[in-house]
Specification:
8-stranded antiparallel β-sheet, alpha+beta, about 30% strand, about 160 residues
Length: about 160
């Protein structure tokens, strides 16, 4: 996998999370996951098509999803993910993906993003591309309180 395809996802996620959460998440240890893909409790998948095709999955535990949704809703308490907070997290994925598409466009790479698919307790069967991609690049973004928002990039 070309690292030039991974970096815009990391930059886009950090930029949007910093703006919405008013905290810059630290870059964790980048690592490779081998297939089959094992998502977290909460996953938001976005398919990418155009000059290259692939999928990015934003993964987090439910507590991290509640933390981020709360930040996005101006501090409103989010004790558990409900329809509104799931919608907020899906919109977060949309915003990150739009930012990423803009970053690629600036490099002359044209991509189209599909609407995000929110999944709870997904299995690797929910991510068919993971069977075509033997390696998944995982970039954890860590908040100061320990919550992790992982950016998993699958590009065959």
């Amino acid at each position: 996998m070309n690292v030039a395809y991974v970096n815009p996802f990391v930059q886009g996620a950090q930029s949007v999370l910093t703006t919405l959460c008013m905290e810059t998440p630290a870059l964790g240890q980048v690592h490779v996951k081998n297939a089959p893909y094992a998502p977290s409790t909460v996953s938001i998948a976005v398919s990418i098509h155009g000059d290259f095709a692939g999928e990015v999955v934003f993964n987090m535990e439910e507590s991290a999803g509640c933390f981020i949704a709360s930040k996005m809703m101006m501090g409103m308490p989010v004790p558990a993910l409900d329809a509104m907070s799931e919608s907020a997290l899906s919109e977060l994925a949309n915003m990150i993906s739009g930012n990423v598409a803009t970053l690629f466009s600036g490099k002359g790479i044209i991509v189209d993003i599909k609407p995000p698919a929110f999944r709870r307790n997904a299995t690797n069967a929910d991510f068919p591309l993971s069977t075509q991609t033997p390696k998944v690049v995982c970039v954890p973004l860590k908040f100061a309180d320990g919550h992790v928002f992982a950016v998993d990039v699958m590009i065959p």
